[in-house]
Amino acid sequence: MIEVKQPKRIPFIGMLQGMLTVFKHGLQKPVTVQYPEEKENLPDRFKYRIFLSMDDCVGCTLCEQVCPNLTISMQTVERDNPRNKRKIYPDVNFGTCTVCRNCEEICPTDAIYLTHVFETARTRNSFTYNPEELEKHEEEVKR
Ligand code: SF4
Ligand code: SF4
Question: I need a labelling partner for 70 at 20 to 30 A (CA). Which of 20, 29, 38, 79 fits?
């Protein structure tokens, strides 16, 4: 019968290794921040909340047409805007927006654009922002 030799174990070595690991992690700078008091710097390329300048919107519907998932739909808004004869403006459902930026890129007047704003928490049934809400800052939008 072959005798299997067990490696010699030094007492407490595993425990010391564990303590060393914990100590090393304790010396590292935390990777988290105290949100919402503190906020991380977002990368330049980060985009989320869509805004709309209604005065610049000509109602061409291109943004609606290029949106890949029907996130945008055009709404009639009575507003004195000689550039928008049909009086139609986009609304956006942030529940389905994939932040692809197609709408921003196709818009001929830069009326619709994505921003760094990401805090858009609203109730479950109201992810859709109408054209007037898309013009406002997040704090002014009814939740
Ligand atoms: S970013 Fe993309 S998914 Fe979101 S509204 Fe614009 S086109 Fe639609
Ligand atoms: S936001 Fe731009 S692309 Fe969309 S309807 Fe208005 S002008 Fe056209």
Answer: 79
